[in-house]
Write a structure and sequence with these properties.
Number of helices: 13
Strand order of the largest sheet: 15-14-13-16
Helix content: 25-40%
Order of helices and strands: EEHHEEEEEHEEHEHEEHHEHHEHEHHEHE
Distance between the termini: 44 Å
CATH architecture of one domain: 3-Layer(aba) Sandwich
CATH topology of one domain: Rossmann fold
Radius of gyration: 21 Å
Bound molecules: 2-acetamido-2-deoxy-beta-D-glucopyranose
Shape: globular
Oligomer: single chain
Largest sheet: 4 strands, parallel
Strand content: 5-15%
Number of strands: 17
């Protein structure tokens, strides 16, 4: 029996159902083989690996243990490559005022209470682990013979967040119909810059089954991942007792498990720009993503907000929690000048983290790039996503698919401190 601790207010809860995680061994072997040529520390894939996870508020020292299994080492702090909310995070959360936020724009309103860290909280880590295990096993059965399949094809040509949300719809449709989701190869995914032209170019494979049967409208069907499907929301019965927001976020997270090459690239990017060179050494920090340009021009956002409007939202809270490191990203270079001005007014309270990325990249420019240019941009997106998902606090506008994607990943990791947003709206957008 292994233990790890999240929050002191958590009930001691034993999850007997987290068994058979031996399935994960295959993935780690895969990671190990690919990773052996990489920097040792960077190439590890961290997964929860235990037949019996106990969340015990008194066993705070036990989370230092790593869980050994066969020849691989795992530790209980990461899910795939992402760090789960930990004691430091929950300690921070308790310093901030409680808020109940309502996510709108879905089939119903979904509430999240930022101070509910109990095991009944839907976004608890044990719920995430169960869901991720279920999804993994669904997609990696012992035997693929006689299974039902859905081939995801016809990817949407839209912004990264948008196209991914459409894939999530198709994945949900496959699960709702008790089918294993497989990508059509070669696909037409704009951001898939390897020969597969699917998300498998950058993320761990969606499944390990290959399809043997013909497309027959019975055992094997095709599902389109182009735009417009969320107007018919799908909510598979297996997740019927969960909110729409929770279920979608879990599916998204599963599909976006970084593969070792992607993770190594991201960690090298961070090492190039951050001193000290690891994300873990910058906590606590707040991540600010400023979406402007095409979103505003196309009127998806009602207005552009000044950086000061963003800072005014969180300045009091971050001071209360002694957070002074701020990561800023935007496709608009001008945001950094605004930052230097704001920080001057605040007597240099904030310490800036940033990566140098190609600015002013919008969907229209991506379409016209070469594969190689696009590959570089996609990896920059994923570096940014990694930094934002790891942040303690987060700021942005949920009318942006990108910000929603980040918010969903953070929720899956157990980070329920509400998104700071000048829009004052928590959105699960169904349109794009
Ligand atoms: C888990 O692994 C990560 C990444 O290597 C490391 O930074 C962290 O300290 C480890 N945690 C524990 C509790 O060993
Ligand atoms: C897929 O992965 C599962 C779990 O690791 C394993 O049991 C199964 O044999 C694998 N199937 C194939 C076709 O490799
Ligand atoms: C549909 O597929 C199942 C196997 O998944 C098979 O048993 C059944 O006979 C098929 N039905 C038709 C009408 O082809
Ligand atoms: C949903 O909750 C009901 C009532 O608690 C329960 O009977 C049912 O099994 C649950 N469904 C799933 C898929 O967990
Ligand atoms: C981003 O950070 C680098 C240091 O890593 C710095 O040289 C650069 O000026 C920063 N860019 C902006 C726009 O502040
Ligand atoms: C914040 O930092 C100040 C000065 O270092 C310290 O007195 C205070 O206890 C800290 N507050 C928290 C909540 O950590």
């Amino acid at each position: 029996m292994k233990y790890f601790t999240t929050n002191r207010s958590l009930q001691t809860t034993t999850i007997k159902s987290i068994i058979g995680l031996i399935l994960f061994a295959l993935v780690s072997v895969f990671g190990f083989l690919l990773g052996s040529s990489f920097n040792e520390a960077n190439s590890k894939i961290h997964l929860i690996f235990s037949s019996d996870i106990k969340l015990d508020p008194r066993s705070s020292t036990n989370n230092q243990q790593s869980i050994k299994s066969s020849s691989r080492e795992y530790n209980s702090t990461h899910l795939w490559s992402m760090r789960l909310a930990n004691e430091d995070y929950f300690r921070l959360a308790r310093l901030l005022p409680c808020r109940i936020v309502e996510y709108v724009g879905g089939p119903n309103v979904n509430k999240i209470d930022s101070c509910d860290h109990s095991s009944t909280n839907e976004f608890s880590i044990q719920n995430t682990l169960q869901a991720q295990k279920w999804l993994y096993e669904h997609q990696h059965p012992m035997d693929c013979m006689n299974k039902r399949f859905a081939i995801i094809q016809n990817f949407a040509w839209s912004g990264f967040g948008s196209t991914f949300h459409q894939i999530v719809w198709a994945f949900g449709a496959a699960i709702a119909d008790n089918r294993i989701a497989v990508y059509q190869t070669p696909g037409n995914w704009l951001y898939g810059t390897c020969d597969l032209r699917t998300p498998d170019c950058i993320f761990l494979p969606i499944t390990n089954c290959s399809i043997l049967s013909k497309v027959d409208s019975n055992q094997t069907i095709k599902i389109n991942a182009n735009t417009g499907h969320w107007s018919k929301p799908i909510h598979p019965s297996i997740f019927q007792n969960r909110t729409f927001n929770w279920y979608r976020a879990q599916l998204l997270f599963y599909l976006m498990r970084y593969k070792p090459e992607t993770l190594t690239h991201v960690q090298n990017t961070i090492a190039n720009y951050f001193k000290p060179p690891s994300i873990d050494l910058h906590h606590p920090y707040i991540a600010v993503y400023v979406r402007r340009s095409d979103k505003v021009r196309n009127r998806e956002m009602s207005q552009a907000y000044t950086l000061k409007q963003y800072f005014d939202l969180f300045d009091t809270d971050v001071r209360r929690a002694n957070i002074s490191t701020v990561y800023i990203n935007s496709e608009d270079e001008q945001v950094f000048d605004e930052f230097f001005q704001i920080n001057k007014e605040k007597q240099g309270y904030y310490k800036l983290l940033n990566i140098t990325a190609e600015r002013n990249v919008v969907f229209a420019s991506l379409v016209h790039m070469t594969n190689e240019q696009r590959r570089k941009i996609v990896l920059e997106f994923l570096s940014d996503l990694f930094i934002e998902a790891n942040a303690d606090l987060h700021v942005g506008t949920l009318s942006s698919n990108w910000c929603r994607l980040v918010d969903e990943m953070r929720l899956v990791l157990g980070k329920t401190i509400p998104f700071y947003t000048p829009e004052q709206r928590f959105l699960m957008d169904m349109r794009r």
